[in-house]
Structures are given as C-alpha cells and as structure tokens.
Amino acid sequence: MQLRLSEEERMIQKTIRDFARKDLAAVADQANLDAVFQDEIYRKLGELGFMGVTVPEEYGGVDLGTFCLTLALEEISMVCPATAIAVSVHNELANSIVLRYGSDAVKNKFLPAMASGRSIGVYAITETEAGSDVSAIRMSAVREGDEYILNGNKIFISTGDKAGVIIVVARTNADDRTGGLTAFLVEPNFPGFSIGKTEHKMGMKASTTVELVFEDCRVPAGNVLGSPGMGMKIALGALDGGRIGIASQALGIAQGAMDSAVLFARERSQFGQRIIDFQGTKWKIADMAVKLDAARLLVYRAARMKDAGEQCSKEASMAKLYATRIANEIAYESMQIHGGVGYTEEFRIERLFRDARVTEIYEGTSEIQRLVIAKKVIEEYEQAYPS
Ligand SMILES: Cc1cc2nc3c(=O)[nH]c(=O)nc-3n(C[C@H](O)[C@H](O)[C@H](O)COP(=O)(O)OP(=O)(O)OC[C@H]3O[C@@H](n4cnc5c(N)ncnc54)[C@H](O)[C@@H]3O)c2cc1C
C-alpha cells in the first residue's frame, strides 16, 4: 500500500497548507470567538476545488479521491477544526450520497453547485430518540401523489442553517425498523422546512449546529435517493468515508497541538533552562510523535483502501477510534506543556483542546466504533477458524 505522497499529492497538500496558514489563520480565532460560520472561506475552498474533491469532473468536481481529502482536512484542522466539519460532511457524506444514489436528473441539477462550494451539503440523521441507534428514526415520510410529506425534527445538524442541500433519512414504513427508512434530498426553500434551535457548544464554535424542523414539508418523489427502503443502507454506508474524514480532522488537531507544544517549549524557560530541555518534556514529545505517526498510518491506510474501492468499514472505524483518542491526549499534554497561558484564549491550544472532544462523539461514538471493529474482527476469526 502506497503510504508516501505522490508528487501531485504533495502539490495539493502545499496548496491547502498555504491557504490554511494564511487565509484561514487570519480569520479563525475571531470566527471561533464570535461563533460565526465563514461563508467566504467556503467560497474560496470551492474555488480551490476542495468542495468537490471526490466528485467527477463531468459534474464540476476535481475527482482527486478520499486520500487528497484527508490531506486537506488535516491541514485545515491544524488551524481551524470547525471549518473542517463542513468540508468533511459536504464531501464525504452529501456529495458522495448524491453521486452514488441520486438519479441523473438529481445529479445534474445539484452536483455542479455542490462541487463548486456554491451549495453546501449537509447530512441530517440524528433525532431526539435516534442517536447511535439510527433504526430508531421516527420522522415520517408519507407518499402523496408525486410528493412525500415529511414531518418531524432532526437535531445537532452541522451547518444545517447554511445548507443548499440536505440529505434527510425518514421513516416510510412504520412496521419495518431497518428496512422502513428512506433517504431524501431536501432543499431549504421547500414549503414546511425551517431552522429550529441553535446549539451553544463547548467547541467547534465556528461551525453552526442546529435543529431542522419539517412540518408537512413537501419533497418531490424524484428527490428520493436510491429507492424507498434504502435509507439505513445509505446513511450507514456513507459513514465509512465520513469516519475517515473525522479521523483526518482529529489528525490535524493532534498535529496542531503537537506543533504548538514543541514551539512553545523551545521558547519558554524556567529554572534557567528551556522547557524543551527537561527530560520530562522530551518524554511527552516522544509519546506525542509516536501516537501521531500511528494515527496517521491508520488514517492514510483507510483512505487509500477507500480510493481503491476496497471494503474499509473496520479500517475507517479503527482510524477514527484511535485518531480521535490521541487528538484528545495530545491536546491535553500540549496544554500541560504551555502551563497557564495554554488555558487562555491567547493560545490556539485552548481552542484545539475544546475542539478535540467532540471528535470522539459525532459520526459514531468511540463505543460504536468498537462495536464495528469487533464485529468485523470476530467475523474474520469465524472465517479463519470455522467452529
Ligand atoms: C457538534 C455536533 C455535530 C453533529 N453533527 C451532526 C450532523 O451533522 N448530522 C447528524 O445527523 N448528527 C450530528 N450530530 C449528532 C451525533 O452524530 C450524535 O450525537 C452521535 O451519533 C451520538 O448520538 P447521541 O448524542 O444521541 O448519543 P447516544 O446514542 O444516546 O449515546 C450516549 C452514550 O451511550 C453510548 N452507547 C450508545 N449505544 C451504545 C451501545 N450499543 N454500546 C455501547 N455504548 C453505547 C454512546 O457511545 C454514548 O457514550 C452532531 C453532534 C454534535 C455534538
């Protein structure tokens, strides 16, 4: 498996790195303090091709694949993890679902605007009673002529208030818990759709998180993605890519936190010597470096497998489980190395520390990743050692 970057991948990495360290860094601190979504940043990311990374050129994308998206999310997250959420969900969940399951009419109508970043795609699964358990979705979708009528609420939807395209999973058959769900493409101007409560969160403040309200919301039957009853398969299937996206985000947070720690420890002196020269600090730095490398290998492997069209649910979950854990551990140790100033808004580590936490929760908690991994591992043992 190719873990080294090709020449083209290095160029892409440099492009997004330059953008993140200049344009994004210039606005990130204030955007997170004000909890404001940066429309202009997404417009620029669209111009650079990063809102259509996995979309074929015929629909206006750049078709570079998941590995290049991983590189982009890593660089963005070193500076502003909140910006990376929308980029990840838009590319790995919304774009990929429309591309795979949309009719030709739907793809032609929506993908060019999505791939250019003019229309942001969001993914709306979670409800009050349906978090980890997607099969508990209650939101109803009832067919009436050429339309479906949707009723119910989705909660915790990232960038829901900025969406041009909303992927919604609702219940079309009350008697079939898993086979009774259907995926729809909803536009925010459809009658009966509105934005509800905005969440006030611990971190990721420059990414809005909102409730979506559907009251007799009319959706054309042509906007069904896949076919009726495929909602669960679509929602969960897309999460392999989504989880590689969040793992890449965590990798960026971990790298950003480590960079801050090393640079700070080089400058700060106590007891007549630089903090970095204490053996205790060196051990912390060594542990950070090992964890970061191990996480990067897991994330890059999962991304390469996805690009090769291989089954990668286990590897995507492993990457997410490990990268999100070490992002929290490295952010913790980095703040420790900073001492008191690390706890203030003056230093980026304060924000990275808060932003890291949710990576272990969304797109499947760490406990759910363990269930996915264990299921696959046990299956592999069953095959290798049939009883
Ligand atoms: C900032 C943010 C952004 C989000 N963005 C989106 C979005 O864009 N779209 C969207 O649809 N959702 C989104 N979510 C929702 C997110 O995906 C859910 O919060 C997550 O899936 C967990 O669901 P829950 O919060 O209902 O927790 P629960 O499912 O109630 O879990 C609570 C606890 O129980 C544990 N648990 C649950 N089931 C099991 C089990 N079988 N075995 C062991 N432990 C278990 C969990 O691991 C967790 O520790 C977002 C959430 C946040 C915080």
CATH class of the largest domain: Mainly Alpha
Please tell me the overall pLDDT: 97
From the helix content, strand content and strand pairing, which structural class follows? alpha+beta
| DSSP helix fraction | 40-55%
CATH homolog superfamily of the largest domain: Butyryl-CoA Dehydrogenase, subunit A, domain 3
Which small compounds were modeled alongside the protein?
flavin-adenine dinucleotide
Q: What is the helix/strand order?
A: HHHHHEEEEEEEEHHEEHHHH
Q: How far apart are the termini?
A: 32 Å
Give the strand order of the largest sheet, numbering strands 1, 2, ... along the chain: 1-4-5-8
Q: What is the strand content?
A: 15-25%
Structural domain tally: 3
Shape: globular
Query: Total strand count, please?
Result: 10
Q: Largest beta sheet, briefly?
A: 4 strands, mixed
Q: Could you explain how this protein is built, in words?
A:
With 387 residues, the protein is an alpha+beta fold. The chain has three domains: 7-119, Butyryl-Coa Dehydrogenase, subunit A, domain 1 (Orthogonal Bundle); 122-228, Butyryl-CoA Dehydrogenase, subunit A, domain 2; 238-384, Butyryl-CoA Dehydrogenase, subunit A, domain 3, CATH 1.20.140. The protein has helices at residues 7-34, 39-47, 66-79, 81-101, 104-115, 231-237, 239-267, 279-307, 313-338, 348-357, 366-384; strands at 120-124, 140-144, 147-158, 163-171, 181-186, 193-198, 209-220, 224-225, 269-270, 273-274. The strands form three sheets. The protein has a four-stranded mixed beta sheet with strand order 1-4-5-8. Strands 2-3-7-6 form a four-stranded antiparallel beta sheet, covered by helices on one side.
